[in-house]
Amino acid sequence: MRNPRIRILPLNNAKFRAGAYFDLRVEAAGVDPQTARIEIKVVGSRGPVPLLQGTPERSSSAAGSLAVTYRHVAYPSAGRMIAVKVTTAPRRSRPALSTTSPYRPADGAPRT
After folding, report:
1. Predicted confidence band at 56 (pLDDT cuts at 50, 70, 90)?
2. Going from the N-terminus, what domains does the chain have, and what CATH number goes with each?
């Protein structure tokens, strides 16, 4: 596989109200879905935030792709970022692919 790519949905710079629920999906293309591993970390101004709970849904809709989806997650407050790292089984010394998504929840209380 060549030129692995990462896509985070909702898209970069999406804004959410604190407490609003959404689904977080990370897609990796150009990887071997049998050996690829996607790590997602949520980082706040004071370090890691335990936003993602449970086991994500793992799927592969096309050859050379892998996606993980966490359903019904919510940012507790403003100022969070998502960091994603995709690793595959070692082949020809290919390094891990990583990206950071600048998600920032909008200020204000959650809608009821």
Report:
1. very high
2. 5-101 (2.60.40.10)
